[in-house]
Write a structure and sequence with these properties.
Length: 187
Amino acid sequence: MHYLSSLFFFTIILILALSAIQINAKPTQKPAAAAASTTVAPLKSTSKAATTTIKPHGKVPAAKPAVKVDKKKKKPEKKSEIAKSNSWAVPNAAQKKVFNDYKAILRAQLLARKHDISATYVLEPAKYGSQEADKTILHHYLIKLPDSKYAHAIIATNKDPKKPTQVSENNASIRRTVYDNLAAAEV
């Protein structure tokens, strides 16, 4: 059975290869009188058909060099393959509102990473930046910690205001790196 299937696939590949080969041989020359035109008589049939004259082409096409042609269609590029990002700036009221929605989750994540934050310390964003990708906006916040260091928080929200993102731990994270100063954090 395996032998027959191999033979079958070999035959198919051979047929495809032979159909793709261009014949580069020159046609044989016919006598001048016969080359000018050829008369073909129709087969016997019940209809009245006259004889048809077929004229050969005047030129034989030149052999084309073998050139690899890429037949794959190029897909249109997505508009937002590269995320658009904004530089760091002082957060405005709308950006602070997003931060305040996730403040409790961010505090819990900072405490889980063993940062010494007292219960009375108020987390505030020092700088804000954003990235837009497909259907999501990534809000980046630099949070000033009590020991004059900075933590980098990322909050993901839907770009479409009709579909608000629910506040959950899955949409907020704190990066592991803690920065000594604001200049180092903004890089």
